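Figure 2 data, in text form.
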Amino acid sequence: MLLHSLVEHADSRRDAIPDYYRRRPVMWQLDLPGDGGGAPLVIDLRPGKGEKARQITAPYGVRSGRNPAPFLLADSALYVLAHPGLVSGPDEGKRPSTGQEDVAKARRRHAAYRAMVTSWCADHPGLPEARALTRWLERGTSDAWPEGMDQGHLVAVSVDGAWVHDLPQARDWWAGKVAAAKSGKQGKGLEGICLVCGRTGPLLSTLPVPVKGLPNSGMNTQLISLNQPAHYRAGIKQLGATPVCVTCGTKATTALNALLADRDHHTLAGESAIAWWTRDPATETSMWTLDNPEPAEVALLIEGLRHPRKGRDALVNLDEDAFYAVTLRVNVNRVIVADWITIPVPELKRRLGAWFADQRTWDGWSGTYLCWSVWRLALAAARWDRRKKHYVDKTVPHHLQADLARAALHGSPPPAHLLPVLMQRIRADHHIDQPRIALLRLALTRTTTRHKELCVPQLNAASTEPGYVCGRIMAMLEAIQRKAMPKVNATITDKYLTTAVVSPRAVFTRLRIGARPHLRTIARTNEAAARAMESRMREAFDLLDGIPAHLDTEQQALFILGYEHQRAHSARAAAEARRLREAGKDLSDDQAADALADAAQDAGAPA
């Protein structure tokens, strides 16, 4: 199914790359005179500092073995100009190697390159480009290489400034040569029915194009590779047990490489790469990366999810279209298909709407909902560095970013280890921010239906879940302390969160008693505010049958959720109270409590 979809995509691409070609950075241009006069020019195309390398679409293929074959016309300096490679000189600079082994290797590679180019010229005697190449080959190459050139630099040949490898005659000849080589030895090639297109014809022994663009990939990373006895199927190695014809094998791997090179159709997720496409190439997919969700588009998706009939503009009815996504990793030059999905586009948009609805958080000060990219959510599960005030990206759980993307596309829960890992991080570093709250909501809402109803983005004042209520109480106690002691260095949350989130009873009795002198301090300047705060705290305690002695991991997550929801609710109330006070209006007792001079600090308002 994957190969079939890739072949289908290759046929529909308008910017299809020729068979056995790929985009490559070129460093040097060998320009030959078409009229035979003058010497060849070696033009430096290397990028300057801060610039991107120039890309060309050049011949490419799998290169392996003791005597790897050259590529037609555009190849490394080792092949094109017999460059032996740079070594350190006596003055600490770099100079071409004079070692016997390096020079002999360069000459062998160049001889193979000359033989291939000579063969192409012989097959196209009427082309002016072929005659120019023949004259160059007859002169022989010089041992004087431009300064800074190394053997791995790509050198492409042109005649009067035009790339020779772009000629139709060069493309067809190279495609025929690679296809013949990958169909097996002369006279021993396999024939049969291709499992992709269903036609009878020559079959590949190995896929002709390696997969490029994957993290940790090598020179010859293969989508299908069976070259060890343990890998064989029915005793048959390589593609003998996976019949793929030359045309389909080429199209599939070329299309996959094109997707992995297209920023609008792939994203990197740690050690994985996710590529996606649609049956109709014109379908817009800019936001489906989940890397940078736009608020307006997210709102449309959620609106379509809540009101399917009213939201038909959001859930565009494209029944004829389909969405494909594949998650790939590499293991010793072999591609691992970690995930593969094919669904209708409307179903994709429904799942994306559910994803954003399940993870969005509420910013009380701005009065807006926030949604987070997959990579930002994955980073929130890393360790928080208190001194540098940022997440340590190397501590993100293995494959978490790819697992979150899979949960979004499949409409499934995040990995089971996410919640315990995240709670361990919070207990250890006491850092609570919006992305971590979003992760907690995801883990809880996608675990059971009960939590989906409970874990709304804003404060749920009617909830009697012990963990959630305890979290709200912790936020209230912290707010009382801050109002009484505006310049406190370490709050009760800093000191007691680790214990309170696991064993509330051991902490809350003492903290409730300790809040009394704080309330008396507040009452000296604003008695109404002190009464309102005490009343809120009493109402919250009344929601509990008793302070729980111990909370499991699920209730601990609800504790953090309740704590943050209470803080966001206080922020919204403080912003409203501030607006009324600036307008010169009288405030109620509750509003007076929220409008204290340091209310912004209580609610975690931005500075």
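Caption note: Confidence is low (pLDDT under 50) at residues 310-319, 596-607.
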